[in-house]
From TrEMBL:
Membrane topology value: Multi-pass membrane protein
Protein name per its UniProtKB record: Lysophospholipid transporter LplT
SUPFAM superfamilies tied to this protein: MFS general substrate transporter
Domain of life: Bacteria
InterPro entries: MFS, MFS_trans_sf
Localization (cell): Cell membrane
Residues annotated as transmembrane: 12-30, 42-62, 83-105, 160-183, 263-282, 289-309, 329-354, 374-391, 397-417
Lineage: Bacteria, Pseudomonadati, Pseudomonadota, Betaproteobacteria, Burkholderiales
Chief site of localization: membrane
Key words of the record: Cell membrane, Membrane, Transmembrane, Transmembrane helix, Transport
Amino acid sequence: MNRGFYTIMTAQFLSSLADNALLIAAIALLTSLNAPEWQTPLLKLFFVVSYVLLAAWVGIFADSMPKGRVMFLTNFIKACGCLLMLFGGHPLLAYAIVGVGAAAYSPAKYGILTELLPAEKLVVANGWIEGLTVGSIILGVVLGGVLIKPEIAQPILDIFHLNALGLSQFAEAAIFAIAFVYLSASLVNLAIPDTGARYPKQRFDPVDSIRGFLESCILLWHDRLGQISLSVTTLFWGAGAVLQFLVLKWCDHALGMDLSQGAVMQAVVSIGIAIGAILAAAKVPLKKSLSVLPMGILMGILVTCMAYFDRSMAPEGGLSMFGFELSWATIIAAVAMVAVGICAGFFVVPMNALLQHRGHVLMSAGRSIAVQNFNENLSILTMLGVYSLLIKLDLSVPTTMLVFGAFVMISMGLVIFKHHRNQSQYDSTHLIGEAKRH
């Protein structure tokens, strides 16, 4: 890997770190404003919806100039959303603006990998980027939680004389500090090298843009390799969003954990994803990327097996680690969640790499990532809606987990069946690694 790649990774880490820290600060700000409780989960919805609504244009924007410059400009939009939240803008509106920046940032972040690196290094690159993204999510949540603590926030208010600006809330002190993380990311963005890749100029005409975007979607969904990798990543991100909330409810139901303890179990899943991503980067070359598909079925089996587990099934007692008492039930649950995360990380990283490669070959880097983001985030919105419906129907937590695990297993089984059927008609695996078409 060259220096440009590590510069991109640093910029991505800092930007994602700020996004996740800002989410915690935004929740704290809503609380301080006595906002209705239903507004808190809307933060994620307002952030994600830009990926769907702007999908037809963010790819064009990402390909309109060197991607390092795109990453700088879109990070600036994120910083503007952060500052709007700081100086009186409603947290939902402000975080939606951050989401606009993130939606436009993503095609440049992933697209530049295909411009900078040869196809055989894309799995390794995706292992890095997924591992660092997971790390930034965990550390971002921790950073946001630390910054809103009175013993940290009050010195920030005092040292920078924020009261003179009309800022007195601890959440506002946290947002002020997070703005500097965005500034650091912007400075790193300026150091990203120009890869020299240039694409035919495209117009932002609404009708033409949407038509071109739909054509790109059709092209990728009809490609024998693209449709498989896009199906898997779309399923992964939708299932992952549900799993975030399902883990919290399962921890409460099966282990008697409160919200903060359940959030730690969420982090345990993320650690597993990071481990799986690293293993995939080390063990799975791009040519063998399709061999990881059975790991998706294994992930569904693990979730299904944990559906009816509770602390009464585990032996009494436990272990003392670093001053904490961990029951055997908690340890078993943590091991299971790490295993789920490892399966997820191990199969999604090669699929991401294959999808980026096929998109780069069939169209431009930015347009292909925009198609990917559109499908993945539409899946998130849809599956969260279905999950909300299951809750409204008052399904028990074990039943919901069974439905979720069975859905993942059946979906991955259908993807594998489709791949084998494609292969029986035409061997498409020799296309992996081919040069970009002109």
